[in-house]
Fold this sequence. Notes:
- By secondary structure, this protein is an alpha/beta fold.
- It has helices at 3-19, 87-99, 105-116, 145-155, 159-165, 181-199, 212-222, 242-249, 258-272, 279-289, 295-314, 318-321, 326-336, 343-368, 408-411, 468-479, 502-518, 523-540, 547-563, 575-595, 605-614; strands spanning 50-53, 61-65, 68-74, 131-134, 138-139, 170-172, 204-209, 228-234, 372-379, 416-417, 443-444, 454-458, 495-497.
- The protein starts with a helix and ends with a helix.
Amino acid sequence: MAKKGIALLLALGMLAGAFMVPGLAADAKKGAYVNPNGCKPSNLCKYSPSIILPGISQSDTRLYVDGEPTDLHGGTVFPDTDNMDLAPVILSLLGSLLLQHDVGLTKSVYNLVKDILEPQRVDKEGNYVHDLRTEVIGRVSEMNESQRHTALDVNVPVYEVMEAAGDDHVYFFAFNLVDDVWNSVDLLEKYIDKVRKETGHSKVNLVNVSLGGTLFTGYIEKYGYKKLDQVVNVVSCADGTDMFADLFSHKVNRNEDFLYRNWIPTLMDDELGVAEGWDKTIGYSADLLIRMFPNKVFEGILSAAWAAILDTILVNCTQFWAMIPCDRYDEIAAMYLNDAEHAVLKKKTDAYHKAQLNLAGNIKKARAAGVHVNNIAGSNLHFGEGRYTYFQPVASIDTVNGDGIISLRCAGMGATGAAPGKTLKEEGYTPKKKGYLSPDGKVDCSTCVLPDNTWVFLGQEHEVGRNDAVLHLASALIKNPGMNIYTNPKKFPQFNYTMDTNDLRRGRIADAKKLLEEGGLTAADKAELKAAIKEGEAVRALTIGDAKRAKAATDTLNALLVKHGKRGEPFVQSGFQQNMEALMAFVSQMALYYYGNNGFIEGGSVIRFWKKVAE
């Protein structure tokens, strides 16, 4: 399998996952501003206003044509599939299939993908070409119900901060994914001044979530820290991630059975959700269908599509370059940006690279000036693990410690992690300083830029909003300036654990309470339901993750809601579906054994088979 080919599938899988993230609502509620804290003009409020810099997919950008909004919008990539011309691809595909070599197929695939991505095309100076406008929803107190649900329940739940400071003191800064990162940094500076003017505060807090961390790195380099009070980096991409560097440099998972056996069925089941109960069966069937082409032709298809993605968006977009770790920038920039056409773009990416190199020093200067900076990271997962199946093709999958998307050393700003599944001791590593090694021996925080202000959740996936313990910590950091790992280690230890309380927060407890209010339950049913609600709320209040307890509480409430007709029965595969999946898995495995990474009609397969038998 060609490196570029697997990189394309990675990108397509990433887009598929992104499509399932809901966008923000369109219209903000208008009205006169009322500040319940009364901090303007007296400026006596205890808390500085907090600005959330959200992650990828959490800023809704829409395409406008002739000044009018279109239906094309989203937080990541929103392809134009309505106007795509499939005829050239279909004709060349049939010809290539019949003749078993490329009959214009790679060219037609390249053109198709390029046309689909046209709405977000970026030119060679790093500027998006079409009229793209990002919805700015601003202050939580001015959001309508739909926006509030999306921003708080779905994206970044910061209820505890609002309870303390007021919802007029929490803001969301939205930014266009394909914009020039330096333009986004400039817009952030203007936004900070707007918030300062509205509230009367001289300084603001920044809560940088995932992709939002890229803006923080550029901001503190260009504008400094004098307007900042506190900074909380939450699984922040402040110095990129190895996963994205692998994607740019075509470094892929080279296991022989990866493409033709494991990834597609898992991707179908976990991410695409094509047909419930049949997803893996369809995936194993796809393993067989792609063998209808010679391997060389199949590689050409994927390589052409990947080239279109690179040429249309990725290579020319500085925001994507900002996701490449500083220690891998020079190598990857040499692959794409050394020609005269990219001279302007390279000045921008070089400047951001410098900001990454200066990040540790900038943070230390900010700390010395009284700015409180804290980091929260996830760890001990492979890239593509958990909910992130589409990222499994990257080469770093088995070597880099992270949260499934962001490298631990990046989100932890220098934290050292063992390869997934190993301990640092097994790798011959000796901690630089005592007292900062995780209980499982897999993470050392003594190497962090801020060892006393870095918290790591062991086994935590990137979507930390699903773990209330993470949210409690983030809120505590905002409410308690100067807090560090020694402030309250029993409640907020440096090394914590994962759990999934997302369903409890987003509906199960509320649905159970509504059921109680409706009445009609027996005394025994009421007692059972009240106990389940109490346990669910107790789990949500935990500051130390407990995955088993969280799952048990969620399962109990689910079962009771099903029992009383408020939820449908959970899906269970039929016996026939199970048998078909097992059959197709067996056929796929035999095809891999017999043909390896070759098409059905390619030569050498019989010899290969008998060699395997002899082995």
